[in-house]
Amino acid sequence: MPNLLRFLRAARMPTALLAAAVLLSGCDLVVLRPAGDIAGRQGDLIVVATLLMLIVIVPVIALTLWFAWRYRASNRSATYAPDWDHSTQLELVIWGVPLLIIIALGAVTWISTHLLDPYRPLDRIAAGRPVPAHVEPLEIQVVALDWKWLFIYPEQGVATVNEVAVPVDRPVHFRITASSVMNTFYVPALAGMIYGMPGMESKLNAVINAPGEYEGFSANYSGAGFSHMRFRFHGLSEPDFERWLADARAADGALTRAAYLDLEKPSKREPVRYFARVDDKLFDAILNRCVDTERLCMNQMMALDAAGGLGLDGLGALAMPRRGDPRLGAYVSAAVCTPETAQRAALSSVLGGLKAP
User: Fold this and answer.
1) What is the pLDDT of residue 241?
2) What is the mean pLDDT of each run of 10 residues along the chain (357 residues)?
3) Contact, 133 vs 124, CB < 8 A?
4) Helix, strand, or coil (residue 185)
5) CA-based nearest residue to 195, from 206, 204, 182
6) What is the pTM of this model?
7) Residue of 351, 158, 129, 146 whose CA lies nearest to 273
8) How far is 239 from 243, CA to CA, in rounded Å?
9) Residue 73 to residues 70, 76, 79, 196, 234, Cα–Cα distance (Å)
10) Phi-psi region at 240: left, alpha or beta (left = phi > 0; alpha = psi -120 to 50)
11) Is residue 310 a contact partner of residue 317, using CB atoms and an 8 Å limit?
12) Which range of residues forms the domain containing residue 313?
């Protein structure tokens, strides 16, 4: 009886793992069976890496179980060699096989990392199907808000909240940023996750190869409304995509800067909505954190820094950097009569050439 109890305890974990595998077998593993070429190649990389690692893992697990059974205390026929400590052949196998696997895994990963670089323009839309010469990528500007997603179509002049649509088999170029905190743009069926960060722009080139409705979401915790920060991703035929655009253009309202500032306020479970018109410089203003036209844009601050800055006297002006601040104007209009005022006056050409996006 004690031996039986020990056996049942030892078998408990494998049994639980087997049960979990059976339950998970009914799940839709979209990461390994995606509808996009980039995601599909990333899934293939996961499978190849897993199989390469199993070349070591499976024999180690099998030998561990075999040794435990072969050299159990009750097996008196097992060879007892307490002075044995080395075997050249065994050492070659133990170190040589993992080394070869690491070299193979490193080579596969290095090549795939460069081929699947999200910033790299697509050279194919599927295996054996290069991108047609006349096809231009569809540009979509993505903004992660609290806690919703904004998608801007600059060429089509429309914008959406929590819904995005793209034509099937057409390359898509995403420009991704965030309004306040870091988020992750992730559509498992399309490609891997890409971070969106305030004041920074990330890029993703991808393509969807099958029509359908897919799920997109943020994969980076960003606060109270994170759980519902999801959006619908539609893969449509060209005629269906044109109809979708027509529906968006038929919607009321325009995404002006004032409308964006209202949309930017934190909210949960935001419904899908469309904007028929969009300020054509809105995304650049979001990226440079100056949708409020009274604020100095981030690229303007960097231009001031590159020109030498305003020195200690400029700290007060830049503490609340708003365009039109009279203190900034005072520096520009200062008379050139000393080295200090000469440096300030030299900045006037920079300040004069800066215009908010």
Assistant:
1) 96
2) 47 49 54 88 91 90 92 85 85 90 91 92 92 92 95 95 96 95 93 93 95 93 90 95 94 91 92 93 92 84 77 54 49 42 45 51
3) no
4) strand
5) 182
6) 0.75
7) 158
8) 6
9) 9, 7, 12, 59, 63
10) alpha
11) yes
12) 298-353
The reported pLDDT for the residue numbered 308 is: 75
Q: Tell me, what's the pLDDT at 316?
A: 54
Alpha carbons 191 and 142: distance in angstroms, whole number: 15
CATH number at residue 101: 1.10.287
User: Does residue 181 contact residue 270 with C-beta atoms inside 8 Å?
Assistant: no
Residue 99 near residue 55 (C-beta atoms within 8 A):
no
Same domain? For 248 and 318 the reply is no
Q: Tokens for 73, please give them.
A: 């205390």
Same domain, 139 and 255: yes
Those residues with Cβ within 8 angstroms of residue 186's Cβ, 6 or more apart along the chain or in another chain: 192, 193, 194, 216, 217, 218, 219
Q: Please tell me whether residues 159 and 49 are part of one structural domain.
A: no
Q: What is the pLDDT of residue 324?
A: 52
Per-residue confidence (pLDDT) for residue 301, from 0 to 100:
82
- Angstrom distance (rounded) from CA 193 to CA 142: 13
Query: Where on the phi/psi map is residue 156: left (φ > 0), alpha (ψ -120 to 50), or beta?
Result: alpha
Both tokens assigned to 48: 């190849």
Closest alpha carbon to 130 in 207, 40, 35: 207
User: Could you give the CA distance from residue 252 to residue 276 in angstroms, rounded to a whole number?
Assistant: 6
